[in-house]
Structure prediction request, 696 residues.
Amino acid sequence: MTYLPNILFIAALATAIVVFAKKVGRIRKNIGLGKDTDRSDRPSDRLQNMLRVAFGQSKMQARPVAGVLHFIVYVSFLIINIEVLEIIVDGIFGTHRVFAPFLGSAYVPIISAFEVLAVLTVVAVLIFWWRRNVSKLDRFHKPEMKGWAFTDANNILYIELVLMFAFLNMNALEANFADAHHSFLISQYIAPLWSGASEWGLHFGERLFWWVHILGIFAFLNYLPYSKHFHIILAFPNTYYANLEAKGRFENNAAVTKEVALMMDPSADPFAAPAPDADAPIERFGAKDANDLSWANLLNAYTCTECGRCTSECPANLTGKKLSPRKIMMDTRDRIEEIGQNIATNGSFLDDGKSLLGDYITNEELWACTSCNACVQACPVDIDPLNIIMKLRNFATMEESSAPGALNAMMTNVENNGAPWPFNQMDRANWINE
Amino acid sequence: MTTFQVPTLAQMTAEGKAPEVLFWVGCAGSFDDRAKKITKAMAKILHHTGISFAVLGTEEGCTGDPAKRAGNEFLFQMQAMMNIQVLNGYEVKHIVTTCPHCFNTLKNEYPELGGNYHVEHHSQFLNRLLNEGRLKIEGGSFKGKKITFHDPCYLGRANDEYEAPRALLEKLDVSLKEMRRCKKNGLCCGAGGAQMFKDAEKGTAEINHVRADEAMETGAEIVVAGCPFCNTMLTDGVKNREKEAQVQVLDLAEMIALAEDL
Ligand code: SF4
Ligand code: SF4
Prediction:
């Protein structure tokens, strides 16, 4: 009977980990549906980028208010994890505050520091909630933020509050114990609130909050993969595998390079081309669906925090166009989830007649982009919505010929006159004598 | 009419000479009436410094930037291969261009296709000449003039060059007023990604009007651009607000040519 709490705890812990690992495995698999792209170069630059952008949150600080508040929540998350470790050890072995003897006189200041962080987190979370729900910051209320996206963002804030509340009150209750050993900086002021309770009630309450706190954390862990909050994990690989090239450099399609080289080679015999391999899947130019994108694009999609910094800097969105780079990322994630689900249900992908371009992202959005890179610059976790946009355009133009008419005319000019306007190539140097 | 010779690379090669730098004029610079003025200003500066330069003339073709940004990778690579054949045929090593789109494409997207050159935007090139003492500018005519600089996306964010144009402007003794959105956060003029060649999608405003407003909010008398497309977009924006009598839109090269009375 005395081991019942330990057993219950171990069962909860194991369930939390197994369920989480399974879901993460699914996401990994979905990301793996993307096309290969080489991001194995420059490992030390990549590591540095990850440390700077994900760990150091360098790009968050472009907006100081959100930057500082987020930093508080982030630091408190990292540090309070140390305390969670103690709870887990306590839970498994039925100990109480197992780290206290090891840390000696440092234990009280350390837990007190955690408490300060917890209070700061509560303040930050309340401000975040205010910005979202009361002052209604524009970027949190774009069309793509309706429904789940909006609920999700608030859920995270509520969970944080519950966790911090449980943590502080657990300590406050214990401070009232007849044999209390510790008194911590913040909870000692909450303690009087519980001073009227009986000794049994205090112990029961302390245990209750202990369980709420840790079960809350387990639930939170398993909520992550369904939430934009998954970025707390994926921000790290995502910044590691970020594009390190100049932002203006768009990748050259290697399949096209081969064809162009053949066409330009005067010695190539067009009829001597090897018979097409009947088994080889026909390679699409560009991307029509989410699995035509690269795994890096898909990793981007799962990492997106839906913060909307990209959208709030996007010149198209700022001037009322439908394009929103955040929506590009959310659509990509929703679609690859759908494809993954489809494969899981049917064994292999069963054509559902849908695609990323068309059913999720419209031509109107696609063609409003100026390729200005403002979204890429703004993203605090190095996501590149522009790369997806360009791949979709590749498909629209090369496979569907669905580019806007004016652009087709421009391209015809380039093809015929070597300039986007209908001028004669031979007049190119006329400016010299004009 | 330029009062001096602008040699083509073909002519120079025929004379057995090789220029120090190839001036890549670009499509806008060759054909667009407004942009041609920028081209001429740049040619004047090059001539003034005594640097041996040449243009490709009729052998130059679109870099393929607008085709690539419009999704036509095939057409882009065709253009690239044709240009690379010409450039490599002349053994070109060093290119300067007044167009950030040409600059970006030549610099970043050609190497993989076999075109390796040292490519500079004219702001970088001129700034280097200044630092090397090969170009001297006297502030004079622009002293204290209130100006603002619009960062072209393909020079700024795309290639992280924010300082060269500002260093040049500093030499002109102007009073530079930055826009609220500048450098890394600069707002696009609305022309990139092949938008120049089509109408904008339905919205509540035109990007170039918004940007021109931001430029004029600084109180600048001159809005300086470093891109022929930005130039056109901002000029239209200023005109749309009927401010063309008070506010001029000029390229960096034009500023220097004017300051030097070239
Ligand atoms: S690159 Fe396109 S999507 Fe991104 S901010 Fe610029 S216009 Fe918007
Ligand atoms: S792409 Fe980046 S900036 Fe845009 S919403 Fe997602 S995390 Fe935020």
Notes: Residues A 304-310, 325-326, 329, 378-379, 381, 383, 385 surround iron/sulfur cluster (ligand 2) (CB under 6 Å). The mean pLDDT of chain A is 92.
